[in-house]
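Help!! Second protein's tokens look totally different from the first
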Amino acid sequence: MTDHRGLGQGDTGAGATSVEPRIALTATPFVTAIALSPIIAMGLVVVTMRRALELAVPGRTGVDAGDLGVVQIASFVLWIGIVLLAWLDHRTLRSRGLERPFSWAWALLGPLVYLIGRSVVVRRRVGGSAAPLWLYLGLTVLGSIIAVIVVVSSGVPTP
């Protein structure tokens, strides 16, 4: 019996495939650094919260913006660093053979957005792990709990 399938209905020819070749390693040191960024961010949160509690003490009349300015600059540097790491991660994935990895530009919206998108793309295309995303989420939760404990136990008198 003769097979009468037209173009686009079944096999498209020898060697044609729509599945991307499996790349050996989707983990990069750059995505690991992004996943570890909550450690630095929570340190900034602790400094900010302690400073806010110190300013809430009765009798304080002025705002010393020195510490908060340093925190703002450090936060900006961290944000730029995460965007740079996302770009390096994107470039590394492309060099390892992953076609159209998740765009590094999404890191401009924050590391969580980039890690979610990257995990979805890597998982769908090559079956990679979402470990960096889970590491980031776990460190964020753990860091938040530790930051609250440090601030509350800092001994800053409150009104």
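Here's the second one for comparison:
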Amino acid sequence: MFRFLNTSQQQLLPLQKLCLGILLTCGLQSLSHATVGGKQYIEILGYEAKDQKLYFLRHTEDASGRLPQLYYFDFQSKTPEKEVEVKSIYPQSKTGEIDHFSDGSDVAFERALKQITRRLDRLYPINPDIFKINIKKQDTVQVPAWADATQTVAEYRYEYNVENRNYHSSTQKAVSYAPELNVKQAFRIPKQDRIIVTVEYLGFPDETMYTDEDAVILSKH
């Protein structure tokens, strides 16, 4: 037996579908932006000789749609080993806040990034195995596991520096979920008595083994 809808009920159906679509879209976007866990890695872009700035990108592979974050080291500043976050090339929301998430049309961001990379000199890659990580302090604590808060995992809190025979860094900090820090990349900086290396460690307490990577500046002894 068929049931016929009256006119008012028929008019409500498209509206109900529209509301359902909006709720699903918002829910998916919230879920995407709230996604945690994912590999982070450093891409060294190059050195700008005029302003003495070294640029790099931090990529995040956590399915959130987050744009790579641009940073630089300013070798003319009083703290040349401190990374500076670049915000000017990212879109802004209606409230004026920086929007770090991709909406699928990132032409303006890509154009601004390309304008910066055009002025950069390439760095000289060197063997990362010639560098040593000196652990100055290590604390190990038990923290709740991400997947099951009733379980705990070991969290290793490090203070360390990186050095070789001629260069060394200032003291750095890292939180790892494995007792290991590794020098992954190393580059000599043109027209500078400095080297940049990246240090990789397990940055997420999960069996997926997501790693983080930090950029570290070394100066001559």
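Reply: Different proteins will give different token patterns, so don't panic. The chain has two domains: 39-122, 125-220.
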